[in-house]
Amino acid sequence: MKIYKIPEATVMRLSVYSRYLFQLLDEDVKTVSSDEVARGVGVSSAQVRKDLAYFGEFGTRGVGYNVEDLYSQLMKILGLNQRWNIIIVGAGKLGSAFALYQGFIDRGFSIKAILDIDENRIGQELDGVEIEPLELLNNRVKEHKVDIGVITVPAVAAQDVTDKLVAAGIKAILNFSPSILKVPADVVLRNVDLSVNLEVLSFNLAFNN
Amino acid sequence: MKIYKIPEATVMRLSVYSRYLFQLLDEDVKTVSSDEVARGVGVSSAQVRKDLAYFGEFGTRGVGYNVEDLYSQLMKILGLNQRWNIIIVGAGKLGSAFALYQGFIDRGFSIKAILDIDENRIGQELDGVEIEPLELLNNRVKEHKVDIGVITVPAVAAQDVTDKLVAAGIKAILNFSPSILKVPADVVLRNVDLSVNLEVLSFNLAFNN
């Protein structure tokens, strides 16, 4: 299957569709229409069809989609038919919350290592994973075949940690720090800034009133 | 100032620009060009100019922007020249991390109440705010003039909490649960799904290899 440039918003919706289909599977539903998927997740049915069309033909006209088939196709497209190993750098409040967040475990993500520079945190455990010194970054990435680095360090340290992750061979980074990070073209970077999310809300509140 | 439909990506970049300007202010820099802002935050200078153009004329051709003026204009546009009161519903791992996250306090956001239904959590404190029973939602929203509701409850409870927040008069909701929530047209909803962020990465890793 040749994949052209897929909009990020499509990828995010595929993730949402796959969760909805999982729910249907759980309720033993066998087939579903694009209309039903659309209603179930709150988008238009044209959107559902367009998103799926990037990846070829899934449904049968007049019959709809086979729930199990579509679910497993979407999981495969999202790369969730395999395990992904994660390293967390920064075991502060946000890093701990991320480590303890259970939402992605049943989607195939596994936290293999958690690093910090704070002597008081090193040696403690988060959900069974020991917090270890930052110096072990390269070793742990290689030993655990880590795929994804999660950055939950203060802004000033974020680029340095990014460089270390990249040097260790990491190709995907989820950044929770408010820094604008530079990565080579072959590394996927995704920023999650909690403050920015709040500020989109305050912007809307300020200007709609 | 009449505001037309502003792309969300623009609003998010304004937030990033404002942080960069704050840094410049701190370094006592007086004027800055769109090129410098662009380089500082990692976007094109055309993008900086286009984003700012939504809100009128800021700079002087050939001179650039006055850092202090532009900073205070951006803060005003983002609604950050005022305080915003927050209520957190769900004091589990994610709710606690959010409550303890310091990143948005100096941007004018203030956590006024934290609610939960778990007897073991109620009565505990998070950064000086006591966790109280969910039943107090309506009272606390009114008493503290809460502007923004943050939802960090499990998916199954999220719509119910949303309905309660909306009924209490909340016009902006930040949702961390993986649920697709329904809100009236006059309520701004923003979803932050940690798993979806990871899945955009796994998608890229799976398809670029």
Determine the oligomeric state from the structure. Answer: homodimer
Shape label of chain A: globular
Low-confidence stretches of chain A: none
The top level CATH class name of the largest domain in chain A: Alpha Beta
Strand content of chain A: 15-25%
Question: Biggest sheet of chain A: strands, sense, closure?
Answer: 7 strands, mixed
| Strand order, largest beta sheet of chain A | 5-6-4-3-7-8-9
CATH third-tier fold name of the largest domain in chain A: Rossmann fold
Helix/strand order of chain A, N-terminal first: HEHHEHEHEEEHEHEEH
Beta strand count of chain A: 9
Estimate the mean pLDDT confidence of chain A: 89
Largest interface: A-B, 60 and 60 residues
Q: C-alpha Rg of chain A, in Å?
A: 20 Å
Characterize the structure shown.
The structure is a homodimer of 209-residue chains. Helix content of chain A is 43%, strand content 18%. Chain A is globular and about 60 Å long. Chain A is an alpha/beta fold. The first copy, chain A, has helices at 8-26, 34-41, 45-53, 67-77, 93-100, 137-143, 155-167, 194-208; strands spanning 31-32, 65-66, 84-89, 109-116, 125-126, 129-133, 148-151, 172-175, 188-191. The first copy, chain A, contains 8 helices and 9 strands. The first copy, chain A, folds into 2 domains: 8-77, Orthogonal Bundle (Arc Repressor Mutant, subunit A); 84-196, 3-Layer(aba) Sandwich (Rossmann fold). In chain A, strand 7, helix 7 and strand 8 (172-175) form a beta-alpha-beta unit. The model of chain A has no long low-confidence stretch (mean pLDDT 89). In chain A, the strands form 2 sheets. In chain A, strands 5-6-4-3-7-8-9 form a 7-stranded mixed β-sheet. Chain A has a two-stranded antiparallel ribbon with strand order 1-2. The longest helix of chain A has 19 residues, at 8-26. At the A-B interface, helix 1, helix 5, strand 8 and helix 8 of A face helix 1, helix 5, strand 8 and helix 8 of B.
